[in-house]
Amino acid sequence: MKRILLVGKPNSGKSLLFNQLTGLRQKVANFPGVTVDVKTGKFGPYELVDLPGAYSVHTLSKDEDIAIAQINQAMADDNTALLVCNLDATRLQSSLVFALHMQALARQHNKNVVFALNLYDEMQKIGHVIDTDKLSEELGSPVYAVSARTLYGIAEFKQDIQAIAAGQKPVSSAVQIDSSPEQIQQKARDMAARYGAQADILLKNQNRIDSFMLHHASGSLVFLLVMFFLFQSIFTFAAPLMDGVEAGIGVVAEWCLSLVGEGMAADFIRDALFGGLGAFLVFVPQIMVLTFIIGILEDSGYLARAALICHRPLSFFGISGRSFVPYLSAHACAIPAIMAARTIESPRKRLITMLTIPLMSCSARLPVYALLIAVFVPPVQYLGGLVSLQGIVFFALYLFGILTALCISLLLSRTSAVEGKQTDMPFILELPSYRLPHWKPLLRRVVESGKQFIKRAGPVIFAVSVAIWVLGYFPQNGSLQDSYLGMIGHWIDPIFAPLGLDWRYGVAILMSFLAREVFVGALGTLFGIDAADEHIGDLASQLQADGLALGAGIGILLFYVVALQCVATVATLRAETGRNKLVTSVVIGYGLLAYLLALAAYQIIG
């Protein structure tokens, strides 16, 4: 199948344009460097390829290396029918610099080029008209004014680029473009001066807002409030959805059990399916709420401001403001966060950031936190229900993970444990315009996050729940103490006894090395087997009735904040760093630190 390539700067509306052309549910974010993977979608008879964003062919960061390498490889492929270069109408000069490089590269490979002058709705707001016909003549390639947000010009653009790719519509290429960097810079500057809007008009509103958002006092206060709101919302706003999911699971469980009657099948459905997998599904709404809030921060343009605000304090710990985005992304999942660290120019700071990302509390820890907080923290609410004590504890756990990551970053930056000490490049960050999120892709992304979380963790939790049920049910048909699992549990009991935990918690912790969220499913299965004669109840209530000590519960929380218990994260770290010994040391080091923290919590609190 013939391909059409879509290239452009980060944060220029390229991914949203890709969504509109293909209808695919792709991530759209208003921060440079978010798109580091190649995305494809069907576009008529063609395959549309969204290549990673880059500012220049002269790369500074690892994700730009990937982008330019992919572009060069694609341009040399005979199946590439057309290059579509996305321009940011609000930042025409910088977009044209990259576009002219791409045009020169395309002509070297005898490929046609089309320019999409995106974000044109921003020009319409200020009453500025860009003469695309004259700009097309000067560039020697068609220029289409479009807005992926409002769909302005999209219908005509779709038709024309398919016709151009098929060779049905001629493309002018008489204009010769000098490919030297100096000539390209000068030509981009001249064209932006003739066709683009004046910067002071475009940035008037943005500068007025930034004077408040980036002020050392008001900006810091807004940042702290935003972060508190982010973590508070995970618990407070998701609670009604979680209650609804839990009630729905209970109804379905009762209905299924009524169909099969008593016996081994009923025990399996109750304990393995609804006790293990069902206990995990209750926490999916929290992942969706987290994705929604982070998505708003990304799309609105605030995320870049937060990175700028954090640069000075993060510099003290040996990293930079660019580390903030991977750190915040890690609260959803550590794997894309580690990959997002490619945007950090300094190899040393990039490595330190990657090694400390696992200390950020990802969505897989949410079920563990929510379960134990529900056991020990009363649901006290303040300010009319906007703030809850459970949410405050949630925030404290996230804050503890962040502080631990910063302390370890400081330690690594002050030692020779991480190679590459060198004079770092200056911190440079493009501040995007403030924009309202594009709600439809955002809501799709939220739903997709829930689906992906279930798809990724569900099979693992199901397999573990079934294995635990089989080992815990036999050979005594439901007697947990005398089961195979009981034998294994009592063998490992000395390891966890100093933490105030019995063998059931030890088994759940060991199983969760596959994925942290397995802890909840494993406990749900274990306690389901142990109380097989009782009605299916809330797992938190079962733990309360079991008499888990406060110090032991806090110890588990601290353990999961620090311990690196995710095989996929370890594999990603290994792939990005290429160093087995270093990654192994991180896994062991975080594991020992987590155990010592849990031990101290139990010994001090009891």
Automatic annotation (TrEMBL):
It comes from the Bacteria. The keyword Transmembrane helix applies. It holds the Pfam family FeoB_C. The chain crosses the membrane at residues 221-241, 247-265, 272-297, 324-344, 351-377, 389-412, 453-472, 549-570, 582-605. Keywords: Membrane, Transmembrane, Transmembrane helix. Residues 1-167 form the FeoB-type G domain. This is Ferrous iron transport protein B. InterPro entries: Fe2_transport_prot_B_C, FeoB_GTPase, G_FEOB_dom, Gate_dom, GTP-bd, P-loop_NTPase.
